[in-house]
Amino acid sequence: MPTRRVRCRLTGPATRADALAAGIRDWQLRHAGVDRLSRDTYLPRALSGEIGSRLAAVLLTAPPGAVASHLTAAVLWGLEVPLVDRADRRVDVTVPMTSRAGSRRDRRVHRTPLPDGDTTQLGAVPVTTPERTWRDLAGVLQPAPLLAVTDQLLARGCRRPDLEAALVGRPTGRGSARARAVLPVADPRAESPMESVLRWLVHAAGLPAPALQHVVRDAAGRFLGRADLACPDRRLLVEFDGDVHRERDVFVDDARRQNRLVAAGWTVLRFTSADVLGHPDDVVTGIRRALR
């Protein structure tokens, strides 16, 4: 006789007390469809991939005044952060300085002062402002991904003086030097996070600052193409090719475009994430040689 399948009764984030009050027994919390995020936080497995659901579960047992921050706040603000461990699904929360709450397997707890102006609400979720999020991320990201975040913030309307003010508010401590190094390089014209990472490689190597989204025309003024990065005086174009460039139509267009540019006397260097992440020294060497 086949075993009767027991339906998962948990429908949202809950503590054990919440579950018991809803009539869910302890043995039902051990259902295969339930994730035990930490010692007293449960979530339906179907929702465990959603950052909002994981955050809601964590806030159930977080101390009063806890807010989403750091990488979690970045995701909530719609920012794409490259070069981070996607397998790490912990939620970042900042708690009041007086709290004794510690990190658990489902959360990273940060303890820094939280002035009123540094927090806001996204719907019903307490979260650090974009400017405060940027200053927090400066303490946990390397310069290349921090530049990618900074470019995105500027492109979305965050003002450079507001980021500078966030740094003035916390002028010392972890990430302060990194934030000062990255902010002058940031540019809202960057069109992808990995393009920003490539630009940081160029900057860190001491190479000439490239022009972004440079439009190339022939002698008659006809459009030949637009490049991610360019050194027009050396007739050098540098491109980052993401996954979309593997699609057949895009690949064909790229080949035709490159032929037009090379025929017009431009050198075109194209790099992928395998180059930028796996062989950054080779990327820098290739650009340096082309500049010579």
> How would you characterize the largest beta sheet?
4 strands, mixed
- Rg over CA atoms, rounded to whole Å, is 24 Å
Structure summary, number of beta strands: 11
Q: Let me know the average pLDDT.
A: 94
List segments where confidence is low: pLDDT < 50 over at least 5 consecutive residues: none
The overall number of domains is 3
**Relative strand content:** 15-25%
What structural class do you assign from the helix and strand content? alpha+beta
Fraction of residues in helix: 25-40%
- Element pattern in H and E: HHEEHEHEEEEHHHHHEEEHEHH
Distance between the termini: 78 Å
**Any idea what the shape is?**
elongated
Give a nutshell description of this structure:
With 292 residues, the chain is of the alpha+beta class. The protein has helices at residues 16-21, 26-29, 51-61, 70-76, 130-137, 143-155, 160-169, 176-182, 193-204, 248-263, 273-278, 280-291; strands spanning 34-38, 41-44, 67-68, 91-95, 107-111, 119-122, 125-128, 211-217, 223-231, 236-240, 267-271.
How would you describe the overall organization of this protein?
The strands form 4 sheets. This protein has a 4-stranded mixed β-sheet. A 3-stranded mixed β-sheet has the order 3-4-5. Strands 1-2 form a two-stranded antiparallel ribbon. It is α+β, with helices and mostly antiparallel strands and 292 residues long. The chain folds into 3 domains: 1-48, no CATH class; 52-179, no CATH class; 193-291, Endonuclease, Chain A (3-Layer(aba) Sandwich), CATH 3.40.960. Strand 1 (34-38) and strand 2 form a beta hairpin. The model has no long low-confidence stretch (mean pLDDT 94). It has helices at 16-21, 26-29, 51-61, 70-76, 130-137, 143-155, 160-169, 176-182, 193-204, 248-263, 273-278, 280-291; strands at residues 34-38, 41-44, 67-68, 91-95, 107-111, 119-122, 125-128, 211-217, 223-231, 236-240, 267-271. It is 38% helix and 19% strand.
